[in-house]
Design goal:
- About 10% of the residues lie in helices and about 30% in strands.
- The chain is mainly beta.
- The chain has a domain of about 50 residues.
- A hairpin with a 5-residue loop joins strand 2 and strand 3.
- The chain binds zinc ion.
- Zinc ion binds next to helix 2.
């Protein structure tokens, strides 16, 4: 009568499949009007600004600023990078 350690189950691949992708809540009207990934595109009045941080993008530093929409709760991040025209607003997965 040998006991199998329970810990063996926890390391099986099946134990790690539990991560479910949550469906994204629909964007409210002003949020859906934001042009994503375009430098200096405007946000909208109901975005509440959060913290910001600097990241190294190789060609220079960029600043990421977090926003949360007061209307629909969508989390946004705005990247300000002088070297890249194709960054700007993007939705953060929640
Ligand atoms: Zn919104």
């Amino acid at each position: 009568m040998t006991q199998v350690p329970l810990a063996a189950d926890a390391t099986s691949p099946e134990a790690k499949v539990a991560k479910v992708t949550q469906p994204q809540a629909p964007l409210c009207e002003p949020c859906s009007g934001i042009q994503q990934n375009w430098r200096r595109a405007p946000g909208h009045a109901e975005l509440v600004q959060g913290s910001n941080r600097k990241v190294d993008r190789g060609q220079g530093q960029a600043t990421l600023t977090q926003y949360v929409c007061d209307r629909c709760g969508t989390a946004w991040v705005y990247e300000n990078n002088k070297a890249d025209q194709h960054v700007g607003w993007s939705v953060v997965s929640r």
